[in-house]
Write a structure and sequence with these properties.
Blueprint: E1 2-5, E2 15-21, E3 28-29, E4 34-39, E5 44-48, E6 53-57, E7 64-66, E8 70-75, H1 84-87, H2 118-127, H3 145-151, H4 172-187, E9 190-198, H5 200-217, H6 224-237, E10 243-246, E11 249-252, E12 258-264, E13 267-269, E14 272-273, H7 281-296, E15 310-314, E16 333-337, E17 340-347, E18 350-364, H8 370-385, H9 387-390, H10 396-399
Parallel strand pairs: 12-15, 15-16
Antiparallel strand pairs: 1-8, 2-4, 2-7, 3-6, 4-5, 6-8, 9-18, 10-11, 12-13, 12-14, 16-18, 17-18
Length: 402
């Protein structure tokens, strides 16, 4: 009998929560088969079977279990059953016998049953009600005015039928995210500055080269590579934005590990592009695709989501026009991208239509001053509006490795 214990998902994590069992008690499982999803305060991870055999569960969904604690047993001596269904305990509960209908008591009716009082009849006429719609509480079933008042819901009141609601415990990951967001609001002097970017030049570049780029590199030429490389350049110009507070000290990094917010099955995750300053357009796009797929498939690890120095969040994929993103602590800045909308702008004294994106930089004012924050965002804007000269050294084909 093999005891399966909770492995350590990462440094500093001492406890996880059983989010969902993917098998039932008594199932036959194969080695390396995912048998459970466990939540830590940083990620949701799959728990693979360490051997083949019949599994016996030792924890319930929602249980908090310590790293190293036994969560299930696997009988490795058991053979694979011919029919999996025959080895599973029935999950269907026996239907409870339907009780015989209780005999309906005979009603005692008199001339007063269903007859409204004068006051009740007046109110019923006003409401358009008939006596068979009201149950009388008076003597011998006589309908009183109060019966009519109680029997007619006031306008705007809750309907008489049941209205559903559900109560579900937040996952450990979601609880930790909530804690971190509240901490960021309470413990940082967070401000947000805004600007707008004319995306025409990037649109033209993508239109001219996206097919050749995808054919050669097997990855799409998206917006994230432009934004990531524009951020890398801006962080070089304004290193305070690439800094963090540690007590009474400021730590400034000479590398750029860019966190990117992506949507996963368990909510928002923030994997990190390591050493983004060393990557080309192809390198950034390939890494973004790799991390997004791992997040979508629930394979992202804790190490892949820790240690970023700056974050880029793209609310535009969900249609957001403008937002004030929340800093991802202990970082000091986060750039929010938004949707791209054709808007009227003035170019060379003339009104023209251009694809415009609003961008927002939220920053910790304890460490980043207004000059740095505004200058950083302007530097990002300049690079995005003139990518050939600033990000590609005047040679798009070379920069895109075509």
């Amino acid at each position: 009998m093999l005891e399966m214990k909770v492995p350590s998902p990462g440094e500093s994590i001492t406890e996880v929560e059983i989010a969902e069992w993917l098998v039932s008690d008594g199932d036959y499982v194969e080695k390396d088969q995912a048998i459970a999803e466990v939540d830590s305060d940083k990620a949701t991870l799959e728990l693979p079977a360490e051997a083949s055999g019949i599994v016996t569960l030792k924890a319930e969904e929602g249980d908090a279990v310590a790293v190293g604690q036994v969560v299930c047993l696997i009988d490795t001596a058991a053979e694979r059953p011919e029919g999996q269904a025959s080895t599973k305990p029935s999950t269907q509960k026996a239907e409870a016998p339907v009780p015989a209908s209780a005999p309906t008591p005979k009603s005692t009716t008199t001339y007063a049953t269903g007859t409204p009082s004068p006051a009740a009849k007046k109110l019923m006429d006003e409401k358009g009600l008939s006596p068979d719609q009201i149950v009388g509480s008076g003597r011998d079933g006589r309908i009183l005015k109060d019966d009519v008042v109680k029997g007619v819901p006031a306008m705007g009141s809750a309907a008489s039928e049941d209205r559903g609601a559900s109560r579900q415990k937040l996952s450990m990951l979601r609880r930790k995210v909530a804690e971190r967001l509240v901490s960021a609001k309470n413990e940082t002097a967070m401000l947000t500055t805004f600007n707008e970017v004319d995306m025409s030049a990037i649109f033209d570049l993508r239109k001219a080269h996206k097919e050749a780029f995808k054919t050669k590199h097997e990855v799409s030429l998206g917006f994230m590579s432009f934004f990531t490389l524009a951020v890398v350049r801006a962080l070089e110009l304004f290193p305070d934005v690439n800094s963090m507070i540690d007590g009474d000290y400021k730590i400034t990094y000479d590398y750029k590990d860019i966190s990117i917010a992506v949507s996963g099955p368990k909510g928002l995750m923030v994997p990190v592009i390591r050493n983004a300053e060393q990557l080309s357009f192809r390198g950034v796009e390939a890494e973004v695709k790799r991390l997004a797929l791992r997040a979508r498939d629930g394979q992202i690890t804790v190490d892949e989501m820790t240690g970023g120095t700056f974050t880029i969040s793209n609310g535009g994929v969900f249609g957001s026009m403008l937002s004030t993103p929340i800093i991802n602590p202990p970082q000091s800045g986060i750039l929010g991208m938004h949707n791209i909308v054709e808007r009227p702008v003035v170019k060379d004294g003339q009104v023209a239509i251009a694809p415009i994106m609003y961008v927002a930089l939220s920053y910790d004012h304890r460490i980043i001053d207004g000059r740095e924050s505004v200058g950083f965002l302007v530097a990002v804007k300049e690079a995005l509006e003139n990518p050939i000269e600033i990000l590609m050294n005047g040679d798009p084909k070379k920069a895109l490795e075509l």
